[in-house]
Protein 1
Amino acid sequence: MSIAKTYNPKEAEEKWYSYWMENGFFRSTPDEREPYTIVMPPPNVTGVLHMGHMLNNTIQDVLIRRARMLGKNACWVPGTDHASIATETKVVALLKEKGIDKKDLSREDFLTHAWEWKEKYGGIILKQLEKLGASCDWERTKFTMDPDLSEAVIDTFIRFYKEGYIYRGVRMVNWDPQGKTALSDEEVIRKEVNQKLYYIRYKISGSDEYIIIATTRPETIMADSAICINPNDPRYTHLKGKKVLVPLIDREIPIIEDEYVDIEFGTGCLKVTPAHDLNDYELGQKHNLEILDILNDDGTLNEKAQILIGEDRFIARKKIAKLLEEVEQIEKIEDYKSQVGFSERTDAVIEPKLSMQWFCKMETLAKPALEYVENGTIKLIPEKFFASYKHWMENVKDWCISRQLWWGQRIPAWYNEKNEWVVAKTEEEARATFLAEGKSAAGLRQEDDVLDTWFSSGLWPMSVFDGVRNPENEEFKYYYPTNDLVTAPEILFFWIARMIIMGHDYTQKPPFKNVYLTGIVRDKLGRKMSKSLGNSPDPIDLMEQYGTDGVRVGMLLSSPAGNDLMFDVSYCEQGRNFANKIWNAFRLVKGWETTDSPATEAQKNAATWFDNRFNQALVEINEHFDNYRLSDALMTTYKLIWDDFCAWYLELVKPAYQAPIEKETLDTVAGFFQKILKLAHPFMPFLTEELWHDEIFGERDAKDCVIVAEYPSVAPFDEKIIKEFDSVKQIISEVRSIRNSKGISPKIELPLAISTSDINFAKYQDSIVKLANISDLSFVQDKIQGAVSFLAGKTECYVQLENNVDAEAEHERISKEIEYLKGFLISVDKKLANERFVQNAKPEVVANEQNKKADAEAKIKILEESLSNLG
């Protein structure tokens, strides 16, 4: 085929993705091969592709494509999460635009609207992942509310309940007034907020005296049940046993004593509001205090507040502060910073709230999940996240698993007319259970609450293979446990820990072997990319502008595992330039005419060097992959292709302008090019597939694609040959550098002499002459006076410039270089003279510094000789 002057990413992407799909290259079914399984962290069904998705799914695609090429049965399962809170919020907002209030709908009607919304918008992000080149087995696409997955969730709830892990009770929970639902502790984001600290006067009952209480929440004073002092605080000894009046409403409450109160904080007095603070609730339980909940589910004040009924809590805060000032019960107001909890989903300020909820006991369940990571059965990559994982698992709290929503898996609990309850899968089973327990089954109704979304997604690696309902099925036994999970550190506890917990409970096995934790994508200023900040580019626009391969390379070049990615569009430009480099290299090779003459010795030597260098680089790349250093694996590939192959090998073997190339050499070049395309394919799938099918590589049938080509295997390599050629490259580079520094045209041939060496440079004579543009290459034993000298490794070389150089300018240049090297030598000597450095540093680090010293001293000696030669 003829090859276009420039690469057209859009055309290649559309053509080859369709081709891969049509030929079933992404499809996986169990067979005799080793399975390699990844389950996609299911993005919210409400989502659209953002930069975090781009990074996460690019990494997964690189891993799955390489595994496929390594001959493994690669299975990547895609899907979406029903995201209870986010989806219900979207649907409610959509209905509101149509003039429909959720309160006016039945549960069934609302769910009809929700499913319609899901069918219309829910697949957007998966279609966008196709644009990224994601080679998922799309026939396996799952949704966490598919009937089979929902049944698995209900079965698990019943299983955990029977095992004694699930219970129902009134507890203080995190309440989201906007979503009108409880949240688990992990769904609360703590933020430092500028607030006001209000010092309020509470009058002592039957006295003109008052005490001062400091609070950031004056809107809750109407829910106060007591004032607490420390029994050891001498300031308040006289108040023991007395009572105070709640400001504005004059309700009498007791003064109690408890060492919980910090004498040093604020005024040393604490208002106790058991219904609106977790610590106050525990104090209330201890002292048998009244519980007054003055807030409605939406965060407005209710009748128990007695005043400002129906007002939003934050408006009420300002109004109460004003009312207190009017009756002179505000002592002072100060600026104050404190941590406040926000809903991870709606960003509403969380209210601590006493509520009847369903909980899962976590202490026993968490132990095996910690052991798997502690003993290395599951590896966290990078390991730095283990400490926070361990801390969380050792201090885990019971998990509030019920949500006051309609979208999600409805909890399989049933109530009778007396509000007694049983857990059962169906209404019929519930009725039978009630009757078996000798209780009434009249007025049977199901629990309104749904389960926390993380409860369902915790089953994901099992449920996508129907392993919960049918654990003996062939696919589950073949694909589970999965291999690698690629996800974000912020859901280490939300999701990863819970998958391990549930996987162990069901199978006594971990759900995966490795967890690759990506960093956060940030902008150049270090800010997390977000729509609200307007600092996040649209991934689709980036792929349109720079090509998908270019964006993939751009992101991966700067994304080491667990470290945040400081993203800049210039990385995508670098990726696009890399794609163009490969394209242009191919155009160069494609344009060569051939002759039947045998390859020259220089061409054979170049091929021997590159073959060895390729295998050396392949060892490095494989090692990087084994250690999940994908950024390093790509950079090694990048340098091998750009520097070693394009800048050196092709230049060494290419024929003179318009001259033909030896067919033997072209065949060798084509062979290397195929290896390079295989190596680059996981990172750059579209470009590599486009070039793979050129006739220069011979005839290919429909299934002969690079996506399923065999990944290169490492052959033995000779480091001596590589080091020899490194010296050859250094000679060529030094001659070019000398030309450049002295303003000598590259077209002017220069004589070069190489002193006696343990390297047989005569073997590479033709290559040196060609690439360094040498008029005469000689090998000498003695120093050459009046020549510019340099070291290539330990070999001294001389360039005779004759009339091509300004002696005065050269004298100045060499003097500056000597001055720089002497300064460098001083810094190295200081380091080596530091006993602490020499004793504590690794031996190889010390040896490296000693090598630097020796190299600098050798260079200074040669430069000083060059200086004396100039006269």
Note: The mean pLDDT is 92.
Protein 2
Amino acid sequence: MLHKSLSILLCFSFYAISFSQNSFEIKGIVIDAKTQQPIEGANIISNNLFAISSSNGEFNIKNMTKEVYTFTVSCIGYTPKTFTVSTAAKIEPITISLNESATKLNEIEVQGKTKKRVLQESPTVSYMVSEEFLNKNRENSLMQTLSKIPGVSTISIGSGQSKPVIRGLGFNRVAVVQNGIKHEAQQWGSDHGLEIDQYGIENIQIIKGAASLLYGSDAIAGVVDIQPTKTPLKNSFNGEVNLLGESNNDLLGVSAGIQSRKDKWFYRGRLTYRDYGDYKVPTDKINYENYIFELDDNNLRNTAGKEANASFSIGYISDYIKSETFFSNVNAKNGFFANAHGLEVRSSTIDYDSSNRDIDYPFHKVNHFKITNNTSVTLDNHTLHFDLGFQNNHREEHSEPSPHGYMPKPSNTKEREFNKNTYALNIRDAFSPNNQHDIVAGLNIEYQNNSIGGWGFLIPKYNRFTIGAFAYDQFEINSNLHFLAGIRYDYGLLDTKSYFDWYQSTVDNNDGSTSYVYLQRSQDKTLDFGNISASAGLSYLQKNTTYKINIGKSFRMPLSNELASDGVNYHMYRYEKGNLDLDPEESYQLDIDIDHTTELFSVGISPFINFFENYIYLNPTSNYYETLQIYEYTQSKVFRIGGEFRASSTITENLQLDVSAEYVYSNQTSGAKKDFTLPFSPPLSGLFTLNYQLKDFLFLNKPQLSASYKIAASQSEIVPPEEQTDGYQVVNMSLVTEMNLIKNNAPIEMRIKLNNVFDTKYFDHTSFYRLIDIPEAGRNLSISLTIPFK
């Protein structure tokens, strides 16, 4: 299958290469009208044609048909100029002279700040992820790609799904924001992934620590902020095709995106499709509940899946207003490891090993539809931001019908269904009353309604409304010393609906008689929550060193599953019961960040201290429902401390070493699990990466060879019935290069990656499947191409 996959991949790429055939071309040079010196980096643009002048001012445009073209030549600091050329006549070399622009540069120098400088001045501990990083480190899911950042890890569910964990906290304690709107799915489930297409993303900001001040309840541990892509250049059209093939699960993937802009109107679009089979693990048997499951050819049966995504946006930009409306739909169908759904699979008639690409029971399918609008209006020294969003997350879980306890055999395979609609509105006013103050005040409103279906009950139907108001001020004490302080108040309502079993259960009465009743699993209940968040911090810049300190108080509203669940979670093989008496989580956190960067060397450290007044967790009890252990949601005080270390050094002109490490210590200081840690607590780990810049070879330009070595300590700090995990070491390698194969076009980017080089068997402590003795994926070779066009 691998050979077929790679053959299709190469055929696709060579077809794209051969598609570009030139018929006419023009050559020219761009010079300064006053000095007559060449201008580098000037843009020469016409419909579907684009070039950039080289260091000697020269440009060359091919692939022109027989017609009249009008080109616009522009460069920062110069007045744009247009020229017309006809391909019907002989085209002589063209000289374009640009005049210096009358822009007042002094004003730009006073007001303009680079993105790096803005981040340095903010006391918030954050990390900017560039498009280059995303392309170079792309894995099977967005969060697996981001897991290479210190302090960020994932809860992985198979090879294609994962959810974010920041400093050991995940689920609804980490807010994922896309285009200003919080991504709302079924984040509470440990087997629910993140329904976001990772292609076409340019910048992501990772905020570590309490961020409830800006983002509300679910940002108590941090934020993954997927920021809007930059606006296309005027009179431009470009796009790219991404091709991917992988050996471990025979994955084939393609993603194609385009964007264009005339003057004030612009649009973008993207289509993505991925299809993959069962992934391989470096073992031939799985021990689950003391039952041995044999694996066929190391395939983790029924972990195949497919994904089809589409997105489109249209926008308008002028001197005072910018608005973009974004439509997206992510659709996926994924199988769950057959033996992860309880032991009844032993009596199943399904031949799970007949094919490594079929999706049998149990599986889930999810469709996430999203419409968002981001509008900003500039009025004098005020900038008003409006974010409006609608989301529908429709998830179905299907499994082979089987009777459980008093429940007879269901008539269909739909075990659970969740249909969640979310409406959101964010309003912010950013203004500067003087040169020292940058003030932001805002309002966040969100409404959710979640309906349920299927024959298996876990959480009730509910409605949820939240509203929050905040304000903060970043005060410039001097050019290198900045102070930020803010406050927020949130109010929320949660309205749960009653639910009765669709079948009768036997109940023993006090008089010795027996009754058959439809048991009530949830009740009509309205709960309200209110809380205050606050934050204050300082940042100080001293030559090459940046110092940050931030202290904050944040909170999180309890979720419907924590308050009102009452059913069997077959993916975890346990009975889960909510608690209507839970209070909102309150967290206090101190963050420090010190970063020293020079041209050849950088080093940074980010320690934190965190205290939860009433952390919510699922506690295993000594009680049983039928044959399943009952887990109940409860609360305790929790103390956490840890941090990240990072360093980078240019050893030689072509060799660079990057080192990072992270550690989190957690301890419950009260409650039923006093003196235990928290579930899914990541162990001490480190990552060493060597990057070597090779010389150009044949058609390979800027080839860079990388080797990474990850080492993780054993994790003996667990919460029963969790099991300890041993330490491990994993080696990954990659080659990233460019290929100038299409004339008059940007180079093709090629990435060849070999993960888990030595096919090491190891268990990641934050993996969902680790709970049932399934190791991480084995050796995987992947080849990807990014083919740009314009």
Note: Residues 24-111 form a domain with the Immunoglobulin-like fold (CATH 2.60.40.1120).
Protein 3
Amino acid sequence: MSPPPPPHRLLLALLAVLLLLSPPLLLASSSFPLPTIAIAATTNSSSPTTQKHLLACALVASGAAYRVSCASVSNRSAAPHVYSYGSGDGTSSPFSAVVAGDGYLCSAGPTSSPPMSMRWWDLNEGHDESKRVYRGEVLSAVSGGGESVCGLVGETMQCWRCPWGQVPDRRVGFSAVAVGGGFVCGLVVRSGEVRCYGGGEAVGRVPMGRYMLLAAGERHACAVDYGGVVGCWGDAAAVAAAAPVRMSRAVSTVAVGDAITCVLWGNWTVSCWPEGEASPPPALAQKQFVALEAKGKVVCGVLMSDYSLQCWGGGVAGGARKVFDRVLPGPCAPSKSCSCGVWSGSAELCGGGSDVSVCYPCGYTPPQMALAPASNSSSTSQSKGKHRPSNLVIALISAGAGSGLVALLAAVVVVYYLRRHRGSSSPVSGRIHAEPTGPAVPRVERRLSALLSKGPNTTVEQFPLAALRAATEFFSPAQRIGSGSFGAVYRASLPDGREVAIKRAERRDTGGPSSSSAAAARRIDHEAAFVSELALLSRVNHKNLVRLLGFCADGGERILVYEFMPNGTLHDHLHKRSTPLSPPLASWPARLRLALGAARGIEYMHTYAVPPIIHRDIKSSNILLDACWTAKVSDFGLSLLNNLDDAGGGNAGAGDDDPCVTAGTVGYMDPEYYRLQHLTDKSDVYSFGVVLLELLSGCKAIQKYDGSGSPKNVVDIAVPHIECDRLHRVLDARLPLPTPWEMEAVAYVGYLAADCVRLAGRDRPTMSEVVGVLERAVAACDEYEDGGGGGGGEPALSRSCTDGSTAT
């Protein structure tokens, strides 16, 4: 009798069966349903041949505006032509989309202020005259090919100048449309079924199944199924020549030409088939693109680094060329409407203001299949993200209750397996910064790939590496202003005038066998901190949290871009300046207001962030001060989501298996957390209590006192005096003693600090209670400053007011 298979093989087999049984909910997303680049084909009636001449067309940036412009891909000397209508010169284009086909160019817009119009230029007859072929509701998608254009008005397909007439059943709703040579295909809403109309073999060979992305060319069409596999159908010769490699991988865009197929992967790189004929040249092979179009044997894409339009393939002058220096990567839209963020620098292309930008595309990406062939970390990552709300609801409804039950069963099996077969692993290290082990490398890469593939949040931009290098003078030491949880911090000025702080993960490696493991551990720490900060700060927005402006993950770099805080850290003002003291530390009421601001930021993380966030490294050096001396909490590299939400990458600061590996800073770390590895939001409360004691005493968290040979914690020095009502013994000597009315508020905060640093977490207040106490203390100071009086009776601030802690 043969031995039973290993447990991990049983698990993989079960998961594979579950994946087959359960309809997946993870979708890919096309970059832009309203394309801003197109390829048109023209013929010259005076030429003895009917060979088509290809033009690359785009919404081209021109100063503070943009215009519809087309240029020959084969004739470098030919000047581009601007297309406009009426008496305009096209410099203030109202268009949001450009499509083209055989002998025509078509532009539609605007999307921001209906009604929407579509204008048609006949390129074979002349350049300047156009006709309006549509005016009405905003088109949610538009596609051109052959001699026709089709779009979606809501979920209804509508076509213009099409040989196949109207779509037979207008009651069918579509979520995507693709026009080819004499045919049109659409994806049916909810079912993901492909339906094609018109003539040719693409209509008679429609595949069965559920699909999410769709593209059509001259003789064949392609779609991406819910497993991330690209499949093509149509003319047998075209499909055979341009069949993509079958693999499960995140896909952003598909472009189809004449017997060529190109794919923009989830990491924004391009692959084309046939490889020798359609692949991008070496100079562009590893570049990242925003959008992609194909026609005939020509492929054009918008380069992510500078938004230039690059074209390559048969008939392109020199095999490849830059046709336009700057084009719109997508339609301009109000920045507030961009639910998944904006493309870096796109506001300048849309007119220079911050109110209008090009939205970053939302979308789900396909999961990593259990038995899929591996390619690279970014292409085989399992990822989740946002989709357009309507499609998300559709996907959830179509999955049904059955898929939810199957998913629940899969989760139970996985949890059981992990607990049983990882329970015998070595105990968690007691180090404050536990060094990651070897298996953490792919976990960090998987988290990063999953996070980046779904796109950033509304407030986060993706910056090109070249722009950040230029802003920091190639990360010059002269620009360096400090360090964070995963690397150096540089001060820089962006081209739009914004002052920013740029955190770059260190890439130093001293080399040699002895340092290789340590260097790998540092690299993993930096990657984990990068993913954690990006995942967490893209979720939150509060005036007392340092705002994350954007990130860069190009070329192996891990860079975060923050708002610049000109007044540095609270730690520096408390411990590195003697006199005169900075304004927020120059009086006792000012110190209490500063503490209140920081407390509100932490309270937001604990109470109002969804899901809640535990910072794990609250300290005075992580409280920054802006130009108005407002306190803001920073450095989320060690933070965790309170529910350890794996899908969002919130647990990226720790290993997958050990979410509570101790991390923090000596002197601020919760003793209960350090000893028992029991992490709750009360651990942040303890750390903040230490900060309060720093503000009251002016002492560092750990330092030598009274000539003692060994350093002591400020908790051990200050709390006994506070408990014995001798607060004046520990107050910062650089300030005069509080006035009688100030002393009441300061003592009240002293009692609060003592409560925050109690050994048992259940005895500490919540951050909401901390905020309440500080608000009452600040209000008492304000009342006296405004000339009010205490009056008689019981004091407004009493010791009992701080004893409102709740058990955890």
Note: The domain at 437-565+638-664 is CATH 3.30.200.20 (Phosphorylase Kinase; domain 1).
Protein 4
Amino acid sequence: MRIPISWLGEYVELPGDVTAEDIHAALVRVGLEEEDVHRFEVTGPVVVGQVLEATPEPQNNGKTINWCQVRVAPEGQLAADGGADVRGIVCGAHNFTVGDKVVVTLPGAVLPGPFPIAARKTYGHVSDGMIASTKELGLGDDHAGILVLSSIGLDPEVGTDAVRLLHLDDEAVEVNVTPDRGYAFSIRGIAREYSHSTGAAFTDPVERVAADLSAARPSGFSVTVEDEAPIRGRVGCGVFVTRTVRGIDATRPTPPWMVARLKLAGIRSISLAVDITNYVMLELGQPIHGYDLDRLTGGITVRRARPGETLVTLDDQTRTLDPEDLLITDGSGAIGLAGVMGGAATEISSGTTNVLIESANFDPVSIARTARRHKLPSEASKRFERGVDPAVASAAAARVVQLLVEHAGGTADELGSVLDESEPPAAIALPADYVTRLIGVDFSADEVRGTLAAVGASVESTGAGFSVTPPTWRPDLIDAASLAEEVARIVGYDRIPSVLPVAPPGRGITREQRLRRKAADALAAVGAVEVLSYPFLSGIANDTFGSPTEDAVPAVRLANPLDVEAPFLRTSMLPGLIDVARRNLSRGFTDLSLFEIGLVFRPEPGVTYGHATDLPQGGALPSDETLALLNAGIPPQPRHVGVLVTGNTVAKQPGQTALPAGVADALTAVHQLAASVGAEVRVIQGRHKALHPGRTAELVVDTPTGAVPIGFAGELLPALARELDLPRVVGVAEVDLDALLEHARREVVVSPIVSMPAATQDLSLVVPVDVPAAEVLATIIEGAGELLEQARLVDDYRGTGVAEGEKSLTFALRFRAADRTLTAAEATEAKNGAVALAATRFGATLRD
């Protein structure tokens, strides 16, 4: 939220020498984080000038410039820069005539950019300054011509300081507003917070229109709410106020002070009527929408969208509506997305004379879902989804009427309506010692009562403490805990002592926590970088990576997704890693080794998950039965590890060729991970629909009851990698970390160092080409017996000397006995045992 300081000063007493930094410091004390300071960045002599002469001069490039004589100071007086009162200035615009008063930037001035102004020779003249446009002054985007002051209703004296005239000397502070404090999205709310922080006198801007509310009760305009599908039982619209102003001149300019304040607040000036609605929204926090009354058909009905219904919004986009969308409609159909954006059919234009003003209050959840569904965030939806004061709607409508009458020449009409079905805030019981017990600071009863009254609450004493009714603009105050937090915030967090709690002995981290940390350390040690990605995926991403087979993967669909294109919780870690890799590759980082540890969500087929009971309140510990019901409504969430490598593991350099990364590096990371937690992972031939069919491994852990699958590794299909804008070779792996830790050794196994010499032999076996080398290696280890210390695959040959359909696998074998030196005969006998078993299982033969 950006807050122009001059605007803030209208509703809270500011010191004469206050700075933006002072205001930021005051707001930080009450929990509003500072963001930035915004200024127009116009300095130096910028004055009002009057065009005395304008001589058109065609140029060789086809352009015509005006050589102007401009008076920049009263006759006979020095100008603001100390120079002559009449200046020669070259101007390329043609939207002015002799006698017009304009804004002249004299030498020494600096415009936004920064763009310093100096006398310079151009088009055969020395231009002693510049006549400025709205865009050059930072007030808007209009650069078609210069700013003629009469066009915005101004007729100042020549030589007047234009910076002050156009309010370019104002500045705005920006603060970050958290989702629970929607009231701070207004000058009214920020002024109240500044008052809480400093004790400065606060004047509620609603008081400006209090008399107007009693003088003109709107009546007679039809407004109905037909919400047959409320979200979570809450009707989408609780307040709807309309007022009418007739006979406005929509072509009148917006006052410069309003343009400047809107610009500093981050909103561009559009037209007088629209600017007034935006101004009131910023002032009071109540979004306002204006309709061209003559384009409306009948009264207004607030309802949900019908299947297949469409609406052309103010941005000229045709939007297909969802049955959950809340609409503003008239006799012709939909004319606006409630609380998000109006429709083009009833838009206020330069020809509008009669205006219907809408000031309503909508359900935050409904508005938030609609804005995200249509990817249509707006200033209005940003406020509604955080909660708008339902009691301010009538005052906001009256304030718009007041400004339209004053600046657009309109006449307030009696036609209007007030629909108010909002529920007043419920009283909250606050025990006398609750704040002290919860915060850990002694607060007197007077402090608690005075602080809550200062924020607008109604506080009544009871025998047990207080009965507190929150103000309508604070929907976040819902229980005693939130009231206690408010007392701590307003009184000052510096009252809370900094005490380091002493941890009870014997409560260190669990075995699983310790092993998870070791796993992350091991992956980092092999050169991988840990990343974090969003757990929200599309259905296609889940189906592609969530299962090795072609079957669709059951996934948890979010009821209120942040992105409608990613409404599912992830079933695999790989899509998130791929997104991170794509982002880094697009920024020139080509050599990547990434890993992520996180939860995946794997619902069981045919099981419906959801809350089996109402969510318990935070004030009491839920029972075991309640916790059991809640846990039963949650799908299995195992913790997985994902790994992705691409590019080169070793970069090309003098004397060293580049070493490309691939599936071997992903497998190395898996083995390091397993070793760090005391587990052994065995690799067997595998298949996965997203991976290269000949370069895919299934990862298993051997247990007394058999091999347990715990993940997979492989190389992305080249076609899939190309579709995802990745290099051709991308190695990936995914491991169920929970399953791996379950089968990890719980004790340290130490192998003694054997001092006896080893006997080494090579073994080349010819087997069918479809026999996995890993299975042959496992068979050799089994057949060779306990004398075999190590066996490694060193060659896979297919070619001359080996029959078609067969391959030759060469293994390096190392034999050793712990108590004696082996003879060659003993080593050969053990090797022959391996050959015999391989021949039995695979028909293997020794290669000559």
Note: The chain is about 25% helix and 25% strand.
